[in-house]
Every structure is written in C-alpha cells, then in structure tokens.
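User: Can you recover a sequence for this backbone? Please restate the input before giving your answer.

Assistant: Of course. Working from this structure:
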C-alpha cells in the first residue's frame, strides 16, 4: 500500500470539512487511485481524515484507507510500505488475530499496533509514516520510519490537532501560519531545514524513528515523544563476513520487488544501482531500467548505463535531461517540494520519476549505498591525517572573499573535524553576503570523536544527510508523479550490520570495495573504479542564462525584496557552480513562498 498522501484533523470545534477537502485537493501528488474520507465524532472531539491511495499491494477496495478495525476500536492511516508484512501477518494469525483483507500491509499495521501496542513498530521493516487512533483510549500515535523516508508534519492550534504527510496541504488546512526567521536562515546556510523544525512557526516535522503520542484530554492535548531506533546503539566490532552482507543485501532487494503491479529500476550506471540490477538479473528475472542522460560530457554517464543495460539485457529507457530542462520543467520539479530544498538534483530526480510514472508505479533505486559503504568523497577527505601545516591552511578561510566561493576547501584542512565536516554542507560566506547575522545551528552536525572516525561520520550521515536530504528528495519527487521509490541500501538490517562490524578500509566498506568486487564478475576495472559523479545537471548554464528572470522573481519576492541590490550582479560576474547554487537557493525559496 502506497499513497500520495493523507491529512487529518482532531478538534474540540466543528471541523470545516470543505476547507479540509480543498487542502487535500492541493496534495502534491498526481492521479491517486482512490480518495477516501472518514468523519467521526466521539465525546468532546470531532475527527476528519482524508486519504489518497496509490494501489500497489492488495489492489482491492477492502484495503482502502482510512481503515478501521472490525470492532471499531481503532483507525489507521499509513503512508509507505511494510516489506515484511506477510511474515508479520502470519505471526498475528498464529496469535488468533483475524484478517479481512487478502494481503493488505495496512491491515497488518492496524492489527499489529492494536495487539502489541506501539512497540509493534520495532518489527516493521519498511518505509512509513503512520497515524493510529485508539478510540477507546482517546489516543493518537504518529510514527515515522527509521530514516524518515516518508515525511509527516503536525501542529496544534486553538484546540485542534492537525497533521498531514504534505506540508503545503497542512498550511491550507489550518487557520494561521507565519514564517520562522531562524529556520529560514538555517535553509540559507545549509540548503534545508532539519527536523523537527520547518520554516513555519509551531509546525513540526517528525524526526527519524520517532513516536509522537497525543492523549486527548478534554480541551487539552498531552503530548509525549520518544525515539525507538538509534543507529549508534548497534556499534560493535564483529567480523565483517561478505556472505552475511550479501545475504542481507539479497533479502533487501527481494523484499522490495514484492508488489501487485510491475516494478522498474533506476539505473545511473554507478556502483549501487548496477549492483541491484545485477542481483535481480542473476536470478534470470527481467529488469525494466530507466536512466537520465545529459548532453554535457562532465555530467553524462550514458556510456556506463548502456553498458549495464546491454550486459543484463534490461528493458531500457533513457531520458535526455539536457533537451528538456527549461523553465517549465524546473518549475514543475520545484512544485514537487512541499518544503524549500536547494539541491538542484531535484530536477533530474523529478524527470526520471515523471517518465517512470508513464509505465510503472514502483521503482527500485540505489540510494543509500554511499552512506552504507563510505562512497562519498567527503568521507575520504575527512579520514585523511591533518597536521599543523594543514590546520594553518584552514586559517586562510577567514580572508577568502565570499563572492569567489564558499572557501570551504580551506576548512577541509582543519584539525577540527566538526568544522571540517560541516564545510561540505554549510555556506557561511554566502550568509555574510546576505548581510545576515550568524546563526548558531552547528549542533545539527556533530561528529562523535569518542569512537572510530569512519563510524562517527557514517552515523552523522544516518542522522542528518540521508534522512534530511536524500530521503526527502526521493519521496517528494516520486510521490509528485505517483511513483513509489524503494531503496534496498536503506534497509535498516543492512545499516545495523555495517555499524556492528569491524572497519576494514582496504577490503570492504570504505570505497565500496565489497560491491566493486561483486561487479568485477561482469565488468572491468575501468567500470568499477571510475570517478564518482553526482546526479546533477548543468546548473551554471541554466542559472546564468535565466538570470534576468531569476532577478525579477527575487526583486518582487516575499523574503528577498530587501537583499543587497549588488548581490546577484556580483555573483554573476564570477560564473561558478557555487555562485549558481547560491542564486538557485534564493530562487527556490522565493518560488516556494509564492506557492503557499
């Protein structure tokens, strides 16, 4: 069961159902297979839930949501996929629980929480955001998955509790909202706003692996929060055994192929997506692959994706992004975001999901492989020894002119690992060019120096980069096109295994050697050891060829009408990718604010 989204209200007041329906109609998704409503009154409260379903598991109407238990004591809305739902269903049946659907994972969530309580979440293997209402106890549970693959937002306002899987829809459902300058500044510094915050006052985003429990007590709401899964709790020094790793990897891929509709695969031509396709093809199963290609040589991996498609005889599709990226396509991609998010890879990500949606509802991706196996260049740089001379070089940062770039290259020479690692995400020089005061949000990225540095960096990626940036982008761009993306490398069993094993820099985890060795069965050294490329497009050319339009958007903007008049012309003199990213960051925020 995957959905485009859901929205709900619980209030001591009468609920404006027409307004809530209008808010739901603005949900960022296309073509849900079914929309269902649930209006209810109990004691002092009115309830209204609306659910947009994309049918993937159990296509019958019996699996529609909101779903209530047979005795009407509980109701659930659930966005995502429980990959081990058949195993959990059998476990519940053995305990005497009766099911009324054929194989709905939603009913497994409903009956599982009803039978075991909120601890049932520990058994779930998947991506999900859950709203569970216990009618007898007058209690609501909001539950997010371990790595925030499925966002969920909520707010309390004058005796009303509102929540939604989509922030823009939530804004249309509530009476008032206003911007929070502190978190707009966090966006300008980092390019995102990290959970549990949003750029709006008093509107929260669920954190990874969080349970928010709301007790309905007359005109009051008693709220408690807890985290049920912490990656650091799995740190250990067990021996890394390749067969055990691939057993978990194979299981993660197999689980993500389960669907009552056909499944596609994203293929970048890189190590991660190729490893998944090899795993499937080696079982003599047909693979349907989709690649984004570019005319610009430095961004194009067509050679490699075609080699993979040919080797495994996939049913292959290509989308030439360079021929399609115009203002319309960019604005379409930005519409998929219900929070400001500055990574320009959102554009090709949206384009590939949109193309997939013409043929499929489900796609498997290689996202999460770099976090799992040390694939990022920043990880390698952070692990290098830094001495007094290097630390001295980092001091040059203070004198580096901001219009030339971030100056973060100098910070990567620092002995301060927090300063070094944050430099890959922060743009403090840009902040100063905007004449803004420095904010103190460094605590969102902190490296634990009491443990092995590689594992400390890996933990930070699982606490910040993967859930706050990667998973958000993947979910929003795919849901906008009514496609569910499944990522085997994000399987929490794989994550726990890697964190629990010894570091072996030469053979296994860093540089993804375990996967490279796996692919050497089918490809040469050039294929597996080529330099990694990000999933991006020619942002410099796009920004500077559309600079007059962008300037007009900013000049008439909601937030940036008072930015220094010389800023954009100054950034346009030195036409670098960094300055293009800065202008893009401003443009994205203004386009977002105009849409809410």
């Amino acid at each position: 069961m995957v959905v485009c989204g859901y929205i709900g209200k619980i209030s001591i007041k009468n609920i404006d159902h027409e307004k809530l329906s209008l808010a739901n109609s603005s949900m960022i998704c296309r073509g849900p297979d079914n929309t269902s409503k649930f209006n209810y009154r109990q004691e002092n409260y009115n309830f209204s839930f609306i659910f947009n379903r994309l049918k993937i598991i159990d296509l019958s109407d019996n699996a529609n949501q909101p779903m209530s238990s047979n005795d009407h004591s509980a109701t659930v809305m659930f966005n995502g996929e429980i990959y081990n739902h058949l195993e959990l269903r059998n476990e519940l049946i053995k305990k005497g629980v009766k099911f009324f659907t054929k194989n709905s994972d939603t009913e497994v969530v409903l009956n599982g929480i009803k039978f075991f309580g909120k601890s049932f979440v520990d058994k779930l293997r998947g991506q999900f955001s859950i709203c569970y209402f216990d009618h007898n106890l007058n209690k609501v549970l909001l539950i997010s998955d371990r790595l925030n693959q499925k966002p969920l937002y909520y707010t309390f306002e004058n005796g009303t509790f509102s929540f939604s899987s989509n922030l823009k829809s939530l804004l249309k459902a509530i009476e008032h909202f206003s911007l929070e300058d502190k978190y707009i500044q966090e966006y300008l510094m980092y390019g995102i706003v990290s959970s549990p915050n949003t750029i709006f006052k008093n509107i929260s985003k669920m954190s990874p692996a969080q349970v928010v429990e709301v007790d309905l007590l007359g005109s009051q709401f008693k709220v408690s929060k807890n985290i049920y899964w912490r990656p650091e709790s799995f740190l250990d020094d067990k021996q890394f055994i390749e067969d055990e790793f691939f057993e978990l990897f194979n299981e993660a891929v197999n689980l993500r192929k389960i669907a009552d509709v056909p499944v596609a695969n994203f293929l970048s031509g890189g190590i991660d997506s190729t490893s998944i396709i090899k795993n499937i093809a080696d079982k003599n199963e047909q693979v349907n692959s989709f690649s984004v290609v570019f005319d610009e040589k430095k961004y194009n991996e067509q050679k490699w994706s075609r080699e993979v498609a040919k080797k495994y005889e996939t049913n292959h599709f290509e989308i030439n992004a360079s021929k399609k990226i115009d203002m319309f396509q960019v604005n379409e991609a930005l519409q998929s975001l219900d929070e400001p998010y500055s990574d320009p890879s959102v554009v090709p990500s949206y384009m590939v999901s949109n193309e997939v949606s013409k043929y499929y509802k489900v796609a498997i991706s290689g996202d999460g492989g770099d976090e799992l196996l040390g694939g990022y260049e920043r990880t390698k740089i952070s692990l290098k020894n830094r001495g007094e001379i290097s630390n001295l070089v980092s001091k040059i940062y203070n004198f580096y002119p901001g219009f030339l770039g971030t100056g973060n290259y100098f910070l990567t020479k620092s002995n301060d690992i927090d300063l070094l690692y944050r430099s890959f995400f922060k743009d403090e020089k840009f902040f100063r060019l905007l004449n803004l005061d420095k904010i103190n949000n460094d605590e969102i990225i902190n490296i634990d120096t009491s443990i092995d540095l590689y594992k400390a960096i890996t933990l930070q990626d699982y606490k910040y980069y993967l859930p706050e940036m990667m998973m958000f982008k993947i979910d929003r761009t795919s849901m906008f096109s009514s496609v569910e993306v499944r990522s085997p490398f994000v399987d929490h069993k794989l994550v726990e295994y890697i964190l629990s094993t010894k570091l072996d820099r030469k053979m296994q985890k860093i540089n993804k050697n375990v996967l490279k060795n796996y692919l050497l069965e089918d490809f040469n050294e050039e294929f597996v050891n080529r330099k990694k490329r990000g999933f991006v497009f020619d942002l410099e050319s796009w920004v500077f060829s559309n600079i007059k339009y962008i300037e007009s958007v900013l000049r008439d903007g909601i937030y940036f009408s008072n930015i220094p008049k010389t800023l954009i012309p100054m950034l346009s003199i030195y036409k670098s990718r960094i300055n293009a990213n800065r202008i893009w960051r401003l443009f994205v925020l203004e386009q977002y604010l105009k849409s809410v």
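That completes the design. The domain at 2-229 is CATH 3.60.20.10 (Glutamine Phosphoribosylpyrophosphate, subunit 1, domain 1).
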